[in-house]
Amino acid sequence: MTHIDEAPRPATAVAPAQGRAKKLPGRDRATVIIMVTIPLVLVVLLVWVPALLSVVLSFGKWNGFGDLDTIEWVGVQNYQDIFTIYPAFWPAVQHNLIWLGFLFVFPTVLGMLLAVVLDREMKGSRFYQTAFYMPVVLSLALIGFIWQLFYSRDQGLINQVFHSQVDWYGDPDINLWAVLVATAWRHTGYIMLIYLAGLKGVDASLREAAAVDGASEVKTFFHVIFPVMRPINMVVIVIVVIESLRAFDLVWVINKGRNGLEVIGALVAQNVIGEATRYGFGSALAVIMMLISSIFITIYLRTVFREERNR
Amino acid sequence: MTYETPVATPAPARATPPTRKEGGVLSKRRGTIATVIVALLALAWLFPLLWALVNSFREYDYTQANGYLSFGGWTTSNYEQAWTQGNFGLHMRNSLLITVPAVLLTLWLSSMVAFVLARFSYRFNLALLGVFLAANLLPPQALLIPVFRMFREVPLPYFMSDSGSMLNSFWALILVNTAFQLGFCTFVLSNYMKTLPHEIYESAELDGASVWRQYWQLTMPLVRPALAALATLQVTWVYNEFFWATVLIQQGNKLPVTSALNNLRGQFFTDTNLVAAGSIIVALPVLVVFFALQKQFVSGLTLGSTKG
Questions:
Q1: Is B48–A146 a contact, with Cβ atoms under 8 angstroms apart?
Q2: How far is CA A279 from the centre of its chain?
Q3: Rounded to a whole number, what is the distance in Å from the CA of B258 to chain A's nearest CA?
Q4: Which residue has better confidence, B159 or B239?
Q5: ABC transmembrane type-1 domain: from which residue to which, for each copy (chain A) (predicted)?
Q6: Residue of B nearest to A195 (CA)
Q7: Pick the CATH number of B87-302 from 3.40.1190.20, 3.40.50.1780, 1.10.8.640, 1.10.3720.10
Q8: Residue B125 burial by Cβ neighbours in a 10 Å radius (0-12, 13-18, 19+)
Q9: What is the spatial distance between Cα B277 and Cα B283, in angstroms, rounded to a whole number?
Q10: Structure ipTM
Q11: Closest residue in chain B to residue A158, using alpha carbons only
Q12: Does the distance separating the beta carbons of A146 and B302 come in below 8 Å?
């Protein structure tokens, strides 16, 4: 029996490309599959599988040297230890939070203001922009070294000028703040760049209309520019949170994240490449990092995808 | 903070005209005040690098005797000493051997995914983009332990790695850097490719061009500006990468130059002028790239935001 009334089913998984139905010939389908699969395998193998394995390992005790069967499964013991008896954990959490707060209060606000000012017709705007974002191309580890020229107890500029004897990187009460100043040096330019890019999306006619209506500069900023920047703000929030969580390079070059510079990222590394390798324990710390960051990754992806759909 | 977060600022769907007006002119008095403040801040921002540059050319003994606020004692010997003592020739070569393949591989792989994402709307397109983008955002420390162990288990022939495994080899760093940077590049490139006119593909199809030809001979030449911008960004990011190099390379002479500085800390931290010279040497390649390709660098960061 012939089904003449049968509707032609979409033969392949290929949905209509941008509104037009199409079917790929076999060879092209293979090409497409290969083009996606190779990169996908790399990302899955080096990011997603390790992420999953971190979760699994976090429930075990393992020194990492023996085979997999030397893992002793201990349930949530690692997490319990981290929260109750690991002396470095709560200071690290506190430091990461201070890091986050500091980045929001100083470099983020300053970077945003700089972007708003530099977005205007101003003599030498190009030069100023360059000055602010030059540190962005330097690595944080290198920035740690450059700021040593200011912070060194015996040879640093600060102590020379003020005839003081402060060991800025060594004193556990202040080294975190010294590090944050150095971080801010780079971060401000980064935030400024993001806002400058975002401000390019502000329709000039909006601003002209506001000017014609006689709105003041401040009013224009809050009623015209700021609303347009709302999606950028969201992205900046995510960036600052994730960067604060990842804090590692600077503290590692200074003292490997000890003595006042504990951050979660450095604790994970200490448990793997230190003298005492505790893979399970380090994994539990890693999972805590992952859980926090996944909240913000979700927010970020939602922002991005909303844009994709609106396209 | 080795991996930058993609600056993917969602912007209104309006295409940015090439000659956009800047954000209007400030009133005169406000303008002057703003200029003075910004100029002073800019000088403050330049100061650390200038200070490093100046002191890298000064004799240690001179600055010890006269303090750093003095003037004089000029020399270039810090550079010679730092270069030999820090073995910078070797480490620069290591950085080159890691950065160039990693950047090329990243651009190639991400352009393929981006092409598929932009050209065909598979149902799982968003999910696929999510897999790549989220990977870019995960803290690398969270993946350290399994990656470290996996690389130790993967044997490599000795002509590829004298450690006999992925651990402690450049291959590990190339692959890890590539895997992490794919998300950002895919995102930017697919956005860029979506702006290409559809008609070119229609006529290509009429001519019977295969998907591969459409990708390689049609799309790739058209996205060259985006590729150039991304290449610039990636070179600076991979060159600056610190975390993975520190944990995956245990043999001092295999470290890329950014991490090698840390290895030299013991010898360097006592002599600030030597630290300055070493820092300038490490900073020089990225600063050269930055100044030579400044336009690319900035447009790379803004590509994600303005949809090409």
A1: yes
A2: 24
A3: 7
A4: B239
A5: 93-300
A6: B9
A7: 1.10.3720.10
A8: middle
A9: 10
A10: 0.85
A11: B68
A12: no
